[in-house]
DNA sequence: CAGCATCCGTAACTTACATTACGGATATGT
DNA sequence: ACATATCCGTAATGTAAGTTACGGATGCTG
């Protein structure tokens, strides 16, 4: 099988895995279920991903790479820092509370080995954090914000932007926020953030 | 069996359930495992709790009742509102990020029926919310805070107090916060909160 | 084109677990 | 004290799932 063709096939399998995961949760997702959804065989899944954990690790890693590249694209612009935050905030909130992210967080919560959680966090929050640090440092250099500890400032921004939305999504008590909600909450977060650190 | 004796026995079984749940996660927790830890029989568990879901519902409900009574005790004092918040905040944060709460949130995340999440939220956040509303209304009456929407104010307070600590606890990337940390974060939350709404 | 690798669909194997059942021991109520 | 209910420890039952295996179809490479 061609490398390119295999890559496409792999993504189809991963997409099928998400469909089963989002419909049935981690506990209700079996390798055979994914294989059937993807019209693939168990043997192929095990050959390509190693085992169930390996397949989920691949899902987490790919999802995180996509989130990161989305956000990095914003950072390459010449816009001023607060404008970047205005664009980045709703996108980040949307991604973190989207159905895929929620499904992956649920998988991590159910994974008693802690490995999915580690991958999710390293590739997620821990990857986004330095990006946000760069934005906030830019804002400070532009004289828009005033803080000593960049990490503290990023943490505060995330508290105001995301708060406890994720856990409420994960336990099933918060519907997916609308685009409108994400914009409004981001604007609110920026407003409060500037009030506190401006 | 005496009502009183049965109640004690039931709590012993629930304590054993927590031990298994915290050690092995929801997916790794079997009824037989709990029965063995509690030195009870499967038959007794099924007679008393109905099924696995029923047992976990009981865990959630009892934990929430305890959290609530903890917090209500603070509310019965004659202290001024901000003092109450100074006491309530660290306690609430400690309870919400404690090992039991985390284990229950994980169970809810793994429960594809959504029932545990519903119980957890109704008996948790949704029970705590009105308590906090009362505190903040008292603070407004005392002239300490200024806001229009009580619910919005409570949400902001929770964002500042808890933020994304819970989800990070649940996916295993945040150790349990120390008492000292809870006090400091609560104090920080109150400070920012007053800065924004004072 | 032929030989080999790999994929699909399906089955097999092993293990685990939710739930029910059972014999004997213990507790309860009269 | 006796009869009955209930609990414990263990086994049985039925189902599901992780993983491997297999025959035939398809794809790839020389």
TrEMBL record, chains A, B:
DNA-binding region residue numbers: 30-49
Pfam family, one: TetR_C_7
The keyword Signal is assigned to this record: no
Domain annotation HTH tetR-type: ranges: 7-67
Stored InterPro entries: Homeodomain-like_sf, HTH-type_TetR-like_transc_reg, HTH_TetR, TetR_C_Proteobacteria
Molecular functions per Gene Ontology: DNA-binding transcription factor activity; transcription cis-regulatory region binding
Keywords, sorted A to Z: DNA-binding
Protein name: HTH-type transcriptional regulator BetI
Organism: Roseinatronobacter ekhonensis
Gene: betI_2
């Amino acid at each position: 099988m061609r490398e390119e063709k295999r890559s496409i096939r792999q993504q189809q399998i991963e997409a099928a895995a998400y469909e089963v995961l989002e419909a049935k949760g981690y506990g209700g997702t079996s390798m055979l279920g994914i294989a059937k959804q993807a019209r693939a065989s168990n043997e192929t899944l095990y050959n390509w991903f190693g085992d169930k954990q390996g397949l989920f690790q691949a899902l987490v890693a790919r999802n995180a790479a996509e989130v990161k590249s989305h956000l990095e694209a914003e950072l390459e612009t010449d816009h001023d820092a607060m404008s970047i935050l205005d664009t980045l905030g709703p996108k980040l909130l949307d991604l973190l509370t989207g159905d895929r992210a929620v499904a992956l967080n649920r998988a991590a919560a159910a994974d008693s080995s802690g490995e999915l959680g580690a991958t999710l966090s390293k590739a997620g929050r821990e990857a986004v954090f330095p990006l946000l640090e760069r934005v906030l440092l830019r804002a400070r250099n532009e004289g828009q914000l005033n803080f000593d500890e960049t990490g503290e400032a990023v943490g505060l921004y995330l508290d105001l932007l995301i708060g406890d939305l994720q856990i409420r999504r994960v336990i099933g008590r918060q519907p997916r926020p609308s685009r409108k909600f994400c914009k409004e909450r981001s604007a609110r977060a920026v407003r409060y953030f500037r009030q506190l650190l401006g």
